[in-house]
Design brief:
Helix content: 10-25%
Number of domains: 1
Bound molecules: NADP nicotinamide-adenine-dinucleotide phosphate
CATH superfamily: Dihydrofolate Reductase, subunit A
Strand content: 25-35%
Mean pLDDT: 95
Number of strands: 10
Low-confidence stretches: none
Strand order of the largest sheet: 5-4-3-6-1-7-10-9
Largest sheet: 8 strands, mixed
Radius of gyration: 16 Å
């Protein structure tokens, strides 16, 4: 089965975006040119699976940031919502998380970057995320879209590494343990 991998930034109080999806709090952080391991992470995935919420944010950026294929999960979008210049690299799906991973497995994907808010929560709930790299930004934004959501049972994680950056960003890499 294709494995799911998460690489996200969150405010210290656990939000990945403001309620209106704004990322201004993240974009204003001074990185000093440091990529925080993002390029290496991207080299090691076959493509991305994201929700319509994240896709709508990303198409608002000046430039399309991905060189790898992107699968967008949505029950409300249609092909006409995909800009013409992205038709070759972006595919829309109504499949659920398990079926997507089976389908990607058949296509030869080994590792998928699972991205978004609700989507990450869905994949975690279904046991499809192998590891999570979370970069905590030293800011409290008070409200927003949560990185983690409700789960039916506890999920144990194992810390693999943790590092700090001059910007104040604290990055931790966890593997999710399979519940017995
Ligand atoms: N801080 C970071 O590192 C980071 C990283 C990624 C994204 N973000 C931001 O975080 C925000 C996340 O917002 P979000 O949670 O709305 O985004 P999302 O997880 O990307 O998209 C959620 C949407 O995907 C669709 N969907 C289809 N199948 C689904 C399923 N099985 N489970 C859940 N959703 C499914 C639903 O919309 P339909 O009505 O279309 O079906 C749902 O509302 C975005 O603004 C994004 O830009 C931040």
């Amino acid at each position: 089965m294709t494995t799911g991998h998460v690489f996200m930034a969150a405010s210290l109080d656990g939000f990945v975006a403001r309620l209106d999806h704004a990322l201004d709090w993240l974009m204003k952080q001074k990185t000093g040119g440091e990529d925080h391991g993002y390029d290496t992470f991207m080299e090691n995935i076959d493509g991305l699976v994201m929700g319509s919420g994240s896709f709508k944010t990303v198409i608002g950026f000046d430039d399309w940031p991905y060189k790898k294929p992107v699968i967008v999960m949505s029950g409300s979008m249609s092909e006409k919502d995909i800009p013409a210049d992205l038709m070759d690299s972006v595919k829309l799906t109504r499949l659920g998380p398990k079926d997507i991973m089976s389908s990607l497995n058949r296509e030869g994907w080994k590792r998928a970057y699972v991205d978004g808010g609700k989507i990450v929560q869905s994949f975690i709930r279904e046991g499809l995320v192998e590891d999570i790299t979370i970069s905590h930004i030293p800011i409290l934004i008070g409200s927003g879209i949560r990185l983690f959501g409700e789960i039916d049972q506890d999920i144990d994680l194992q810390l693999q590494s943790s590092r700090t950056f001059g910007s104040g960003l604290v990055q931790s890499h966890y593997t999710l343990l399979k519940n017995s």
